[in-house]
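Feature request, filed as a ticket because there's no other form

It would be nice if the structure record came with a short human-readable summary line next to the tokens. Right now we just get the raw output. Example of a typical job, pasted below so the devs can see what we mean:
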Amino acid sequence: MSELEVFAEPNVASQRGAELIVTAGREAVEARGEFSLGLSGGKTPWRMIALLGDMEGMPWEQTQIFQVDERIAPPGDEARNLTHLISMLSIAHQAAVRPMPVTSRDLDAAAIDYESQLPDRLDLVHLGLGPDGHTASLVPEDPVLEVTNRNVALTEGEYQGHRRMTFTYPALEAARKILWFVIGEQPRESLAKLRAGDPSIPAGRVENDDMVIVADEAAAGESTADESQ
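Raw output as currently delivered:
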């Protein structure tokens, strides 16, 4: 069972998510001298990521940011998660980003190369949650869900118009901590299934001993409003 923290407003939830990232970063640097952070795409975390730039204690000099997933699209394309990630970070902080090589001519080789750059265990991986239960680019009915011998792989088909490069379940299972960040009414049903560990959705198949869910009341539903922080 994941720990659930519910907040009345998305901005407050974003602040809490950013605080958890900073705390994980400080603990990682103290323990191992560096901080490896995996960030998922989508619009939901934009505010949370933007807040990191102004937060005291974020160990930027010791931080490496890895993309959890990315669309196969040209550089600068609005569909790219990287396009928005870079826009939210200062030039100094952009140096921490390790982009997924989705413009490579040989995408299979590129996925293997990106995997080789990952630490054995990422310190913190941020995950989102779609209305259909997908997380990262582990999307319903795609063969990528069954990849168990790789930490980075490609979707076989297109999802919402694009093939994807994504972390796989083994990479998520190995992470020291997972931060789920869930906002809005659309993923409410998926959030209930995630909390129940329901394997009928891709997110429900994520296994990790240290997971926290930060959500707003719209996502959590009225039944959990009494858990608000």
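Something like this underneath would help us a lot:
The beta strands are 3-7, 35-39, 63-67, 69-71, 97-98, 124-127, 152-154, 164-167, 178-182, 211-216.
The first strand starts at residue 3 and ends at 7.
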